[in-house]
Amino acid sequence: MDAIFSRQFESREAAKAACSAVAKQEGFALAIRNKKPPGSDNPTYLLLRCSKGGAYRDQRNETVHESKRRNNTHSLKSECPFQINIKLKHEGPWAVAPSRSSGPHNHPFTMDFIFQAAYKAVQGCERAFPPSLGLKVQISECAIDAGKRLTFRDRIWVPGGSGEKGNQEEADKDQLRTRIVQQPHDSVATGHPGREGTLAIVARRFYWPGQSQLVRRFVANCDTCGRAHIWRQSKRGFLKPLPIPDRPRSHLSMDLITDLPPTGPSKSRYLWVIIDRLTKAVTLEVMDTMEAETCAQRFLQCHYRFHGMPRSIVSDRGSNWLSRFWKRFCQLAGISQRLSTAYHPQTDGGPERMNQEIEAYLRAYVSYVQEDWGELLPAAQLALNNRESAATKISPFFAEHGYHVDPISIQDSEEPPPDREESKAYGLLTRLQEVNEYTCKQ
Fold this sequence. Notes:
Blueprint: E1 9-12, E2 20-25, E3 28-34, H1 44-70, E4 84-87, H2 108-111, H3 113-123, E5 142-144, E6 150-152, E7 155-157, H4 168-173, H5 175-186, H6 194-202, E8 206-207, H7 211-220, H8 223-228, E9 251-257, E10 270-276, E11 282-287, H9 292-307, E12 312-315, H10 324-333, E13 336-339, H11 349-365, H12 377-385, H13 396-401, H14 420-441
Parallel strand pairs: 1-4, 7-8, 9-12, 12-13
Antiparallel strand pairs: 1-2, 2-3, 5-6, 6-7, 9-10, 10-11
């Protein structure tokens, strides 16, 4: 195809590695220049000018020779009247990476001063890293392999930035580390394994300070992980809290501690814990069984005759609290049942927390065979009610009675040694005194 100089020409920019250019017209290549001339180390814009000018000179020479062949008397005395239309690299699909202008490239080794100092310390056979580096690894675990690379426990130490959040300069230094994390994370062979999985894969061959933090940020910013995985670390919505009671003993929480050592003549193995949600007062009852009818009868004896019927009771979803007897009992007594969420003990955390305190108290004073914990419940109940509550800043006993419990003090006398029966009374009060002194120290 012959060139038509009355129409526009289109040129494509060249790559820097091989100085080349293409002069096109209506989709056909008219002239191609592809060589590496002297001065290829010049900047890209000079090579572009050189390649485009050379291509058009080749086309001009070809046209001159063709005209001389047709008419030997004809000579080309002026420049050809055509217009050059240059396609920039962002406008055409043929632009290649080497032709793009770029500034000076810095190797991560030269930008990571901590890496340089650690490399020199290992190379110089130092006994320890300088304290100013703040490294948490031992120099004895580092070495330089056959490829002149710094390693830590046979893993390659990758240079980079400090990982400071919000610092763009440090983020640019971490490009090599980011590529190392991205390759195993996005691979089909691993399939976005998550934070711990990605860290385990990367740590098999590579190491750098702050490796886990970089992997955590990368996985948290991964769009595919956010869409495909169940994000368990996301914030949940606010749960509806229980209302604050308006008077004492009107709203209760209760729970049962099971599988305790047998105690007392009936070999009871259950402890019923009843808590006032306002004053945090606790009531402890030894139970032979967890049946709903037995619990209802004991509730009338230990709570109703002193405080009347409550308005609501918060409990778990045990079979005794879900039985038809207990539901009918609460319905007739005007008690509102509030059952906690299954497998979510935080719904009713008060009894769970109180159970820990009760068990800690009993462990401190129970005998070796652990069969006398039932006898310690009166002292345990009074001691727990005499402790200051973090919610109300006063003790439950003071909130209900208006005064604090006086500690037990045994009056010494110069009388002759008591007999056997009097010794029992002395031993009982002595034990209560020890319990009270221990409680006051807590």
